[in-house]
Amino acid sequence: MNYKYITIEGNIGAGKTTLATRLAKHFGAQLILEEFADNPFLPKFYEKPQQYAFPLELFFMAERYKQLKEMLQTQDMFNNFFISDYLFIKSLLFAKVTLKDEEYNLYQKLFDIINPQLLQPELLIFLNAPITRLQQNIKDRNRLYEQSIPDSYLGNLQDVYMQYIRQHPVKTLMVDTTKVDFMKNPKDFDRLLKALEQDYPPGINYF
Q: Concatenated DSSP letters for 29-88?
């Protein structure tokens, strides 16, 4: 294993937490999962997005920063292995979709102040899934407040994720989830484990 800090990312319903949990269990890594359920604005946002978008995104950014700061900065990175199911930049990407221009400009200023204080992952595994699959996964996990998420919102999130990945030299392993099933097909998971033995160059690397 060439990495000490790996992040799994993808759109809503892509399977980030499931894969992160399985990888952490396999490697005996410390698992960092986003605590989205603690955000009191989340159900309200899906009902009235314009009214609750700004407090929603501020809460998420504060909680993500606190969690990553506590778990990563206080640990010995040379003696620990971390796997998380979110990037901190996720805060800014979602805000770009949900906030009005003046709100986003303020949000970005706050983000730019605190982002440099955090360690960044050495490898990003991005789970790329079509909207139809995302909606089916959202339906299957049956979180009530997610059931009315429109395709357009998922599409906008997908666009900002891909724009970020293309424009930033992040070491990224791009996974087409229509061709693999890490939970049901052991061969797919074994192939991923072998892929993690490679030292990828910056940019997009296809799995």
A: PEEE---GGG-TTHHHHHHSHHHHHHHHHHHHHHHHHHHHHHHHHTS-TTT--EEES--T
- C-alpha–C-alpha distance, residues 168 and 178, integer Å: 25
**Quick check: is 85 catalytic?**
yes
Backbone angles phi, psi at 163, to 5 degrees: -60, -45
| Residues 163, 158: Cα–Cα separation, whole Å | 9
**Digit-coded pLDDT (tens) for 13-23:** 999 999 999 99
Paired with 124 in beta bridges are 7, 172
Binding-site annotation, residues: 10-18
pLDDT for residue 73 is more than 80: no
Average of per-residue pLDDT across 41-47: 89
Domains and CATH numbers, the chain: 5-206 (3.40.50.300)
Give 106's DSSP letter: H
Q: Would you list which residues are annotated within the binding site for ATP?
A: 10-18
Name the catalytic one among 38, 76, 85, 199: 85
Concatenating the DSSP letter of every residue in 7-27 gives: EEEESTTS-HHHHHHHHHHHH
Q: 138-143: which pairs have CB atoms within 8 A and are 24 or more residues apart? A: 138/12, 138/13, 141/13
